[in-house]
Design brief:
56% of the residues lie in helices and 21% in strands. The chain is of the alpha+beta class and 190 residues long. It folds into two domains: 2-58; 79-183, Ribosomal protein S6/Translation elongation factor EF1B (Alpha-Beta Plaits), CATH 3.30.70. The longest helix has 57 residues, at 2-58.
């Protein structure tokens, strides 16, 4: 038995450091290389996908379809933009909507707001902000909000607050922040 135990001890002393060295080399050398290989494989797959999209975009049928889609979208822009000449009349339209929904103490004034977005878009479009306040019950407020949302060109309701009145029979006060996209005239800034 002593010979066998001595043999096992020698094998453990020789093979133990070898196993530790191989595990360390795997952790330090092979594992990072395998991770890097996986990253390269995903980059190759992504590049192939971009290449396939590029080939698809280069086809005449795809270009024709995309051109038609852009033309349709440019036609729809009128639903969201107010022409420069039509911008002053929009306040009267909002006032008419307020009259139709029977809002009390309706008031509207321009509001200054910071314009966001890329510089190229701000050269063609401008945002007009309005602050609207009125007294109304919730059903009349909802009717006015619905009328604003269905209005063409689009009137965006950015914020609103409803303040409960102190008196029992009084109507709640509503403050709204509205935004409208106005197309700038060619060659001039607003």
């Amino acid at each position: 038995m002593k010979v066998r135990n001595k043999y096992l001890l020698i094998m453990a002393v020789v093979w133990g450091p070898c196993l530790a060295l191989s595990a360390g080399s795997y952790a330090m050398i092979l594992r990072p290389q395998m991770d890097h290989r996986r990253q390269l494989e995903t980059q190759v797959v992504q590049a192939k996908a971009r290449y396939a999209r590029g080939l698809e975009a280069a086809r005449a049928e795809t270009q024709t379809r995309l051109t038609e889609q852009v033309e349709r979208l440019e036609g729809r822009i009128g639903e969201f933009l107010v022409g420069f000449d039509e911008a002053p009349g929009l306040a009267f339209e909002i006032g008419n909507l307020a009259r139709e929904t029977k809002l009390e103490s309706f008031g509207m004034k321009p509001a200054n707001a910071q314009a966001f977005g890329p510089q190229a878009e701000r050269e063609r479009l401008a945002e007009k902000h309005l602050h609207v306040s009125f007294l109304a019950s919730f059903p009349r407020f909802a009717a006015f909000l619905n009328a604003l949302e269905r209005h063409h060109p689009a009137v965006f309701v950015e914020t609103f607050t409803i303040n409960r009145p102190m008196e029992a029979n009084a109507e709640p006060r509503v403050d709204m922040g509205l935004a409208v996209l106005v197309e700038k005239p060619r060659g001039n800034g607003l």
